[in-house]
Amino acid sequence: MDDICLNQTGDMAAMLLCFPHLQDSCPRFVRLTIVRVVMYAFMVITILMTVCGNLLVIISITHFKQLHSPTNFILRSLAVVDCCLGCFVMPFSMVRSVEGCWYMGENFCKVHSSLDMMLCTTSILHLCLVSIDRYYAICDPLQYSTKVTVFKVISGTIIIWLFSFLFCFGVVFSGVNMVGLETFILMTYCEGSCALFFNKEWGIIAPTVSFYIPAAVMTCLYIKIFHVARKHAKVMSDRLATVTCSELKNQASEQRERKAAKTLAIVMGVFLLCWLPFFITTLIDPFVNFQTPFHIFDAVMWFAYFNSTCNPVIYAFFYPHFRKAFKIIIAKISGMRTNTHILVVE
């Protein structure tokens, strides 16, 4: 009877391993089928929204010459970053999140981790570059055309891409982030895992470079932009004093202030909501002996990914000229599908 129980237990354990034929395999997550289906559906929808939304931005800015401006070139580069994240990082992270297993091998795990870290850093730095562009456009409009040129914007985006690549791939492939953690990694390693650990030093350095410094710059600039926008609204209201009644002036001024406050609140609110939990967890985890549960770390990671889904909405859909471009592109695609359908029927 005991032998039968042992055999049943062994068979059950084998079914729940990432690689049942390996003794050092990681265990798989035990989830109800409906839970797995819902998770896959949600993540696939998020990935499709990320890729399609950012593709619309890329096509619009590339195709329509009216959208060729320094600001929009930053947005196009940002859309390329977020589209790459949706194509090359999020699908593999989805399988790992749902199944709890990494099936692509150790070498690709390093590439995936490096690419994930690089694209997230690049996306954040692009958002910081957008805030710098908006600062000059609103706070120093007379000098904007000389201070912000297409050449400077393209140079800035290239520097961001190169810096992010060298920094992130350098950290992961050099292994400096795991110095002092060799014993811990050997004790916890199993076949089918793909986790990026940071020691205490790099647990501070990496988040600071990738997030905290750009976030501080963005916060300061957007606060300054908000105050300047309010002053501009007040000045415009005063200039209209001779031609409009005071009530209309106040209403127009208040509307402009509310619009500026709303836009900046959405920009910073979504950015901080998506990224802050992830980088707080990354910063704290090395100091609590990596006790953060996988499910929590996974959840905050997908919150961070979701920022790439929101970027096209925040930085493009709010502008009427982008909405018109999107409508034209979608109409053309729909027309092509309709014509193809008619040809097939005929």
TrEMBL record:
InterPro entries: GPCR_Rhodpsn, GPCR_Rhodpsn_7TM, TAAR, TAAR_fam. It is found in: Cell membrane. The keyword Transport does not apply. It is a multi-pass membrane protein. Keywords: Cell membrane, Disulfide bond, G-protein coupled receptor, Glycoprotein, Membrane, Receptor, Transducer, Transmembrane, Transmembrane helix. The chain crosses the membrane at residues 37-61, 73-94, 114-132, 153-176, 209-229, 264-284, 296-318. PROSITE patterns: G_PROTEIN_RECEP_F1_1, G_PROTEIN_RECEP_F1_2. It comes from the Eukaryota. The keyword Transmembrane applies. SMART domains: 7TM_GPCR_Srsx. One of its GO terms (cellular component) is plasma membrane. GO terms for molecular function: trace-amine receptor activity. Residues 53-315 form the G-protein coupled receptors family 1 profile domain. Belongs to the G-protein coupled receptor 1 family. This is Trace amine-associated receptor 4-like. It comes from Chanos chanos (Milkfish). The lineage of its organism: Eukaryota, Metazoa, Chordata, Craniata, Vertebrata.
